[in-house]
Task: structure prediction
Amino acid sequence: MNKPQLIEHLKQENFPENILDAFSKVKRENFISNQLKDRAYEDAPLSIGKAQTISQPYTIAVMLEMLDLKLGQKVLELGSGSGYVLALISEIVGKKGKIYGIEIIPELAEKSKENTKNYKNIKVYNKDGKQGLKEKAPFDKILISAACEIIPKKVLSQLKDKGLIVAPVGPRYNQNLVIIERKRGGFKIKRSKKGFIFVPFV
Result:
């Protein structure tokens, strides 16, 4: 599959225009190793080293749709890997948006800093995602790009009122993608989608 075919494939799944546009603008081949560049536009997860993967484009598109991103929003991604999703989010929220990525594996954090250096609104931190990013909170949207059995309370507390968090929740080989909304201090599951497998939240 090449890039136009991938975009067409995502179009057939009725993803919104702003998400298709982001996939068109961001070069996935820049976020994977040279050995895998000829597979960059397969609708499949690909290894980025250190037992981690860059997620399948379809899965990323589902998460981005669930996040319901708007121009100018402040977004946190936990488990940002090689930075591909950060770049897609940047295209959707625009230059006035602010995007923060947390990656616990030092080599991947360095790689993603390099990969996103041309995006002035992205900042990547090498730290433990379970702590969130208190110094930049609260966030309009939080994305967890790795499987967790429960969402850490510290992360939930960093969401704005009426903010959304999207995360794959469940055991190692079977997660549901859930949307949780914060409302007047409480948290409510808005929607859940079955049948996903992510690498574990490290």
